[in-house]
């Protein structure tokens, strides 16, 4: 069964925060080729909710959802006005139906106002962190980018939401999938201006390497060259991958290239030979062997399966007319 992620939106929520919460889940489903996650948009009322930039969202009332894995509280501006007794009652009731509550942006403020973070570590948007810490002394507010404290989770803003989602994906489905999602969004690549002496910790190093791999699919870098671009030795890069991801740089690189090969097979009319070249294989036979080892089917079979599925969907639509 897929995990259910429910986004509780408040007027003035951040589009970027919402996208950074949902798009990694969509990408994980796409890369895994199965529905690992489902998500829904909720509100406390039946009226449309508008983002801070005016985007309207017709959400389902929170009270109508009986249970779920995660409930993400997502306010942004005007959070103090939202911290009403009615909001607190709704969140406390939801805490009995959802396995984990998450405060995004200023969401931890609303969770704290409902008494749902007492005795917990949490973070909030850093502009409001001092105010939250003063208002709710029973909560251990910290400047971390995100905090996971058992079944209470919080993060400080839109960009940190992406980091949080990658962490949740990794905890549920492993480092390899999380790194592929990060690479898909070009997340983690070191800016060229960062000097060599400012090395990342191992988890940042691995994400930076994955982003570089994504940039160099058609003309793959040798692992030594990849390490050099990160100002590391090959040994240091391999140790970072072993410690953080439990796999080798070569194994992740192969998965990223083969995922791109499968995408091209399913979404373009390129020949298998062309797909091989675009995926960094000079020999289509070598790509076919690697593809079958990775996915259990040949490239031709993968393409045929998409055509068969498309024909079946067309037939179902015709029957419904």
TrEMBL record:
* InterPro entries (UniProt xref): DJ-1/PfpI (IPR002818), HTH_AraC (IPR018060), INH-QAR (IPR052158)
Pfam families noted in UniProt: DJ-1_PfpI, HTH_18
Where does the HTH araC/xylS-type domain lie? 207-305
Per the record, which residues fall in region Disordered? 302-321
Alphabetized GO MF terms: DNA-binding transcription factor activity; sequence-specific DNA binding
Q: Which CDD domains match?
A: GATase1_AraC_ArgR_like
PANTHER family membership: ARAC-FAMILY TRANSCRIPTIONAL REGULATOR (PTHR43130), HTH-TYPE TRANSCRIPTIONAL REGULATOR RV1931C (PTHR43130:SF3)
Task: Tell me the protein's name.
Answer: Helix-turn-helix domain-containing protein
Q: Which organism is it from?
A: Gymnodinialimonas ceratoperidinii
Lineage runs: Bacteria, Pseudomonadati, Pseudomonadota, Alphaproteobacteria, Rhodobacterales
């Amino acid at each position: 069964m897929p995990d259910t992620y429910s986004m509780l939106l408040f007027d003035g929520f951040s589009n970027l925060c919402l996208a950074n919460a949902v798009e990694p889940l969509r990408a994980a489903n796409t890369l895994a080729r199965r529905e690992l996650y489902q998500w829904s948009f909720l509100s406390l009322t039946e009226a449309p909710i508008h983002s801070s930039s005016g985007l309207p969202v017709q959400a389902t009332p929170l009270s109508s959802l009986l249970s779920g894995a995660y409930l993400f509280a997502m306010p942004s501006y005007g959070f103090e006005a939202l911290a009403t007794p009615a909001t607190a009652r709704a969140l406390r009731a939801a805490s009995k139906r959802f396995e984990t509550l998450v405060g995004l942006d200023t969401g931890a403020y609303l969770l704290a106002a409902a008494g749902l973070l007492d005795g917990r570590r949490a973070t909030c948007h850093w502009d409001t962190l001092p105010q939250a810490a003063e208002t709710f002394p029973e909560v251990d507010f910290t400047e971390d980018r995100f905090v996971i404290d058992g079944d209470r989770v919080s993060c400080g803003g839109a960009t940190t939401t992406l980091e949080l989602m990658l962490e949740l994906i990794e905890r549920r489905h492993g480092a390899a999938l999380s790194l592929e999602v990060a690479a898909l969004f070009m997340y983690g690549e070191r800016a060229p201006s960062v000097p060599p002496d400012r090395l990342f910790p191992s988890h940042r190093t691995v994400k930076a390497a994955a982003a570089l791999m994504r940039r160099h699919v058609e003309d793959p870098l040798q692992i030594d060259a990849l390490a050099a671009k990160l100002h590391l030795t090959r040994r240091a890069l391999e140790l970072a991958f072993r410690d953080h991801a439990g796999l080798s740089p070569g194994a992740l690189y192969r998965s990223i290239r083969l995922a791109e090969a499968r995408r091209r097979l399913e979404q373009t009319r390129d020949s298998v030979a062309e797909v091989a070249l675009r995926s960094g294989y000079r020999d289509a036979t070598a790509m076919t062997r690697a593809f079958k080892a990775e996915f259990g089917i040949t490239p031709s079979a993968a393409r045929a399966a998409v055509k068969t599925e498309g024909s079946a969907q067309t037939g179902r639509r015709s029957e419904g007319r």
